[in-house]
Design goal:
The complex is a heterodimer of chains A (about 600) and B (about 110).
Chain A: H1 7-30, H2 34-43, H3 47-61, H4 64-69, H5 71-99, H6 112-115, H7 123-151, H8 166-193, H9 198-210, H10 213-234, H11 242-254, H12 265-272, H13 279-283, H14 285-288, H15 297-305, H16 311-315, H17 322-326, H18 333-344, E1 366-369, H19 379-390, E2 395-397, H20 408-411, H21 416-432, E3 437-440, H22 443-452, E4 458-461, H23 462-471, E5 483-486, H24 500-509, E6 511-513, H25 536-551, E7 557-560, H26 563-570, E8 577-579, H27 580-608
Parallel strand pairs in A: 1-2, 1-3, 3-4, 5-6, 5-7, 7-8
Helix pairs in contact in A: 1-10, 1-12, 3-11, 5-7, 7-8, 8-9, 8-10, 11-12, 19-27, 23-24
Chain B: H1 22-30, H2 42-46, H3 48-52, H4 57-66, H5 72-76, H6 84-88, H7 95-109
Classes of the chains: A mainly alpha (about 600), B mainly alpha (about 110).
Chain lengths: ~600, ~110
Amino acid sequence: MHFNLFVVPFTAGMLILVILLTVRYIKWLSDLEAGNRNEIGGNLFTIKTLYAIREVFMESLLHRKVFKTNPLLGYMHMSLAFGWFLLIVVGKLETFFYTGKFANEFYYPVFFRFFEPTPHKSSLLLAFNALMDFVLLVVLSGIVIAILRRFRPRIAGMKKITKHSPGDRLALIALWLIFPLRLLSESATAGYSGNGSFMTQSVGNFMALFLPVHQLAIVFWWMYSISLGLFMVSIPFSRYMHIPTEILLIFLRNWGIKTKDHFSGFSEIEIQSCSRCGICIDTCQMNSQGKNSTTQMVYFLRDYRYNQLRPDLTDNCLLCGRCNEACPVGIDLTQHRLLQRKKKEFELPSGFKYLPVNQSVEKTDVIYFAGCMSHLSPVISRSMEKIFKTAKISYLFLDKNGSVCCGRPLKISGQFEAAQKLVASNRQQIIASGAKILVTSCPICYKSFKEDYHLNIRVLHHSEYLLELMLQKKLALHPSGKKVVYHDPCELGRGSDIYIQPRMLLSHFMELETIDQEKENALCCGGSLGNLSINPEERNAIQMATAGYLNSVDPEIIATSCPMCKKSIAQFSATPVKDIAELVVANLEALSESQKSLKHHKVGQTIEI
Amino acid sequence: MKDWGYSILKGRQIDFENNDFSIAEYITKHEPSFRWCIGCGSCTATCSAARLTDFNPRKLKLLIQRGEIKGLADEIAKCMLCGKCQLVCPRGINTRNVIQNIKRALNTCHAL
């Protein structure tokens, strides 16, 4: 039996941690939505579980996504997480080879060098000794980067770093102290007994020159154990809750569980998995362009977790989804903001008695729905009408005389029930028309039709539809050689995963330029309906910055496929901003013009002859 | 005199002393851009709901400012929050947040 009184703080901390975690996990897992448990059961013994294990290794330990953000930042996270993991695993193996038994006191590997001061003889154990020193060195290098980064975030590629609450800072200091204290205590023991390896032995010998290492060692071991215990106890109450929770999250997510329209046990697990790394702060345009660094997801989730949410944290967000893409934990951040809005705006009055009920609609195969915003840029719907005519498609322009809103603007401001009334009205008309294809020009409507309408027909954004027409050779487009850059609308790109179609279409008749921040990382135009409370200066700053960014590659035309983006960017852009439908029509018309002039020319020639 | 019809008609009278300005105050506090309105009516001209029913954001703004908030809840409930008014507003007022705050004000300080 190995025992010394100093193991008590560590053991107590560990016990408290295990009890608290068990209680919480049981609560969250029992709060899962009813269907979720079947989903877990169905996917438990499939390849998905193996994918989850791989993801845990790649993300929780190696931090692959953080590496992608910045290599040094990735190294810092990896050295701490993977390094500590190795210390535990290699330490356990070391005791196994030393004692020949697998079952020891569970604190024995942690304080191994204190309990076994005699220097090893076998080369295997000496190798283990050196390996443990090496891993400790790696972890310490991570700590050094972490401390430097606190004072100068830019060395790890971050402009802004999370401002932590006092509780988090305490936990952070406990974590930072653990490994230097481990070095000191192992070195002090090595200093008098000679059981260290390359690092601990050298430090120990140096300490022994002028310090009473024998007496100091026990003090250091006490401090080491206390810092470990403190950190363990702080885990459930600080951001370090993400360490155990993220693993659970990865498994559940791989088994197909998502946060939908209700807050469930899974949503709670998502919230507790936020490590407050702060990567979402730099990526947020509210911060980088709007100069507001208090409204980012990291603060939203933190204050939400501790029940201290300020209303502006819920409202002041563009819902552009850039943070979703950047989040190394893969939390569906915007969905949480949306659910909170829903909770808050629960009983706001709405009444749509004036909406058309059971209106008879002309039968058709293709329905075109321009959307409210397209009516403010009517050139888009006019272009679409010309295209339908050119391609000889019979269609019904459902909202020719003005739209009934699709409902999404109400939904993203938290009024789900009111939105549902608008959905019902539009849905009735779409179904009554007997159409097989619904084409819309507005990405907001598109997302709504796709997700909230439950239509059994094809729903296409006009960029998809135009590409289809072109591929079916119903539209003859000819290369014009003009330089164009494409701006991804948030609701269409990140919101609905439509990146390729507009690009394929554009590159068919124009020179499509690439730009650094595009597709998943595209900037938001700033016009977003997602943000209710943004102040006009902030909005303008974002619009101006995005327009400037798109202009930086010197395009002849900026193309987009959202009437809102078009208006937002055009305000601040010297280069003309055109919808993809306008460009197609311009190309068709240029062609027919040149054909006409060619005919005239021929006529003239015959007369001459 | 009364028979001659020279008294002020009740319907034309703005009673600033007894009118209820709490909604206007609530909005101004939470969305200060409410004060920038010049009453041009662009919002009403473009409004998606106004095409389908008798709904007039410009009029509502005026009435709220005067403190005449009778029947406001039924009126404001007609808004679809589509955001067209925000795009056309020449003063750059955050009209959607104004509407949202009218609703919140009705919910919190008035059960009309």
